[in-house]
Amino acid sequence: MKHIGTKNIETERLILRRFTLDDADAMYRNWVSDDEVTKYLTWPAHSSVDITKMVLADWVESYKNDDNYNWAITLKGNDEPIGSIGVVAKDDETEMVHIGYCIGREYWHRGITSEALKALIDFFFDEVGVKRVESRHDPRNPNSGKVMKKCGMIYEGTKKNSDRNNQGICDASYYAIIRS
User: Fold this and answer.
1) What are phi and psi of 40, to 5 degrees?
2) How many CB atoms within 10 Å of residue 115?
3) Strand, coil or helix: what is 176?
4) CA triplet 94, 99, 101: central angle to 5 degrees?
5) Sign (positive or negative) of CA dihedral 19, 24, 29, 33
6) pTM passes above 0.90
């Protein structure tokens, strides 16, 4: 793998870009404060924009590292972030990245997350040289699995009681796609 950090990525409808400190209000308003968006995530909904600002400060600082990959999802023509997508785990030895994502409820069921995930799969295969891209979801959130399938990821199995999210201990359904 050749780590190159979070680079701008453009798709038909989206621009995936680095977060900035100025994104706090939009991020808070569009998704991180919404209990429905964070229902199956591993971090709780933000109770104030101050929490969002602290998270963003850490994220912006992390961009100094070439092995950090974290994008704001924005619609072309509107620089306001509506979601996030990035690497939540990686293994340089096996050349694998694990991608996590979330998007504001207003933007669900419009193919936006699938478009962003597909762009990242291409980026990691073509530019970073990974061999495996994987992701997982709580089976009680089947729409997340639909995003993965739509991007060509293959269901590999469900690990029972292997994860924790805002619903407590949960199963985790794994999907992956390999470069070959």
Assistant:
1) -110, 15
2) 18
3) strand
4) 175
5) positive
6) yes
Question: Which among 163, 115, 108 has a CA at the least distance from the CA of 139?
Answer: 163
Closest CA to 69 of 146, 16, 134, 145: 16
pLDDT single digits (tens) 14-24: 999 999 999 99
DSSP codes of every residue in 63-100: TTSTT--EEEEEETTEEEEEEEEEEEEEETTTTEEEEE
Report whether 175 contacts 134 (CB < 8 A): yes
C-beta separation of 163 from 143 below 8 A: no
Kindly state the tokens that stand for 127. Answer: 């530019």
Kindly tell me if the per-residue pLDDT of 180 is higher than 90: no
* DSSP 3-state of 39: coil
Q: Look at strands 154-165 and 96-103 and give their pairing.
A: unpaired
Contact status, residue 37 vs residue 105, Cβ threshold 8 Å: yes
Instruction: List the beta bridge partners of residue 73.
Output: 16, 83
> And the tokens for 32?
């991180």
Q: Count of residues for the chain?
A: 180
Contact (Cβ atoms closer than 8 angstroms) between residue 62 and residue 37: no
- What's the CA gap between 157 and 142, in Å, rounded? 14
Q: With contact defined as beta carbons under 8 Å apart, do 161 and 172 qualify?
A: no
